[in-house]
Specification:
The chain is α+β, with helices and mostly antiparallel strands and about 130 residues long. It has six helices and four strands. It has a four-stranded antiparallel beta sheet. The longest helix has 17 residues.
Length: about 130
């Protein structure tokens, strides 16, 4: 599935849910198989630079932690979309164990502490974990 189609599906899902609050409070299991995490965020223009810097910082740490294929990708939504979200951040994860290892690491916690914009934006985001259906 192409990332553009994936983005369109995620936006449609958000519209169907009606609000980020509904999406965020559903329990999220980490799949055993490869999966994609998807964050839809409402980013103010003043936070765009800090978000990009945070993404670059996290990606550097993922490489240092030995997960070269793990990377956040930042997308800006085209104007005219009928959603409160204007940015998407997605990442492909090879496995539950790799996702857990990275997210439980001291390096991840340190990177998150250096980049408070990411946590602030996560408070009012849509977040989901998706597996591709073959």
């Amino acid at each position: 599935m192409t990332k553009q189609v994936f983005l369109a599906c995620a936006v449609a899902l958000v519209m169907g849910l009606g609000s980020s609050a509904n999406a965020q409070h559903m329990p999220q299991a980490v799949p055993d198989e490869p999966f994609t995490t998807f964050h839809l965020m409402a980013v103010e223009p003043t936070d765009e630079g800090a978000l990009k810097a945070a993404i670059d910082d996290f990606n550097g740490e993922f490489k240092k932690e030995g997960c070269a294929g793990c990377a956040y990708h930042l997308l800006r939504m085209l104007s005219g979309s009928q959603t409160p979200y204007n940015f998407a951040v997605y990442a492909d994860w090879p496995s539950q164990s790799e996702y857990t290892r990275i997210h439980d690491s001291v390096a991840y916690a340190s990177t998150a502490a250096r980049n408070p914009v990411f946590a602030a934006l996560e408070e009012k985001q849509f977040y989901g974990r998706f597996i591709e259906i073959h």
